[in-house]
Amino acid sequence: MTRLTLSVVLAVMMAAGCGSSPRQGADTVTVLAAASLTAAFDDMKTQFEKSHPGVTVKITYDGSAVLAQQIINGASADVFASADQATMSKVVAAGLTDSVPQVFARNRLEIVVWPTNPKNVVRLADLARPGVVVVTCAESVPCGAAIKKIEQSSRIAVHPVSQETAVTGVLSKVETGEADAGVVYVTDVNSAGGRVLGIPFPEADMAVNDYPIAVLKNTRRSTAAAQFVDFVQGVFGRQALDRVGFQTP
Questions:
Q1: How far is the C-alpha of 178 from the C-alpha of 44, rounded, in Å?
Q2: Which DSSP string corresponds to 32-55?
Q3: 238: Cβ–Cβ under 8 A, 6 or more apart, which residues?
Q4: In which band, very low, low, confident or very high, does the pLDDT at 26 lie, cut at 50, 70 and 90?
Q5: Domains, the chain, with CATH or none
Q6: Which strands make up the sheet holding 55-62, listed edge to edge?
Q7: Positive/negative CA dihedral, 132, 133, 137, 143
Q8: What is the pLDDT of residue 99?
Q9: pLDDT by residue (tens digit) across 156-213?
Q10: Between 134 and 16, whose confidence is greater?
Q11: Is 153:106 a contact under the CB 8 Å cutoff?
Q12: What is the tens place of the pLDDT at every residue in 91-134?
């Protein structure tokens, strides 16, 4: 082979990417995660990208039911983290998971009010008092299903003026004064800092949510997606979850 011919061959190989190292940033892991995971997963994303050069994590947060429906409707994603097992089961039943979902965290509900608590809400029954403006999650999403279960078990009927599709919507309405009280996860109260006041209530033990995570069937980044799932369940992931109030296995 002449030098000229060799040069041409090498040029073609370089243009095709042969013999070259993978481009940084070539892998993007798309994660769909329950809104209540925002603080913990943002922390994990930063650390995961540092420890996995060339991999970017893109996270979309919303109500678990909304995200599950998007997956069933054909949304492109690699990993799904749900706020309860019932919602994850719908994705599994549709044949859209590539791995058996693993529970990585547990969460419980807490009443949330304005920091000065002007309506003096101190227990679950206070949410049923006339004049107390309450917001909750819709029954179709995990936080709403949990409060409904608690209402039925405790025989305390809460009549919200608004039912949100994600727990962040409930928190926002209390923060802005649109509602006197709401029911969110303890992790949301912790993440909000001093902007709200959290009030634990014993009935929350009736509906503690398990959070499962799974690689999705149509992923094109199966290795990186599996690595992210392992990271969530690893030491750093558990620490990030613990910091905002999740219970971890």
A1: 32
A2: EEEGGGHHHHHHHHHHHHHHSTTE
A3: 248
A4: low
A5: 22-106+210-243 (3.40.190.10), 109-206 (3.40.190.10)
A6: 55-62, 27-34, 79-81, 209-215, 102-107
A7: negative
A8: 87
A9: 999 999 999 999 999 999 999 999 999 999 999 999 988 999 999 999 999 999 999 9
A10: 134
A11: no
A12: 999 999 998 999 999 999 999 999 999 999 999 999 999 999 99
pLDDT for residue 21 is more than 70: no
Tokens of 226: 């599996």
Query: Residue 93 contacts by C-beta under 8 Å, 6 or more apart in sequence?
Result: none
Report how far residue 20's alpha carbon sits from residue 119's, in angstroms, rounded to the nearest whole number.
Answer: 66
Residues 6+ apart with CB under 8 A from 147: 109, 136, 137, 158, 183, 207
CA distances from 241 to 5, 107, 187 (A): 58, 10, 9
Strands 134-137 and 79-81: unpaired
**What phi and psi values does residue 184 have, to the nearest 5 degrees?**
-130, -175
Give me the numbers of helices (H) and strands (E) for the chain, helices first please: 9, 10
Return the bridge partners of 105, or none: 211
Question: pTM for the whole thing?
Answer: 0.84
133 to each of 9, 101, 102, 126, 150, how far by Cα in Å? 73, 38, 37, 11, 19
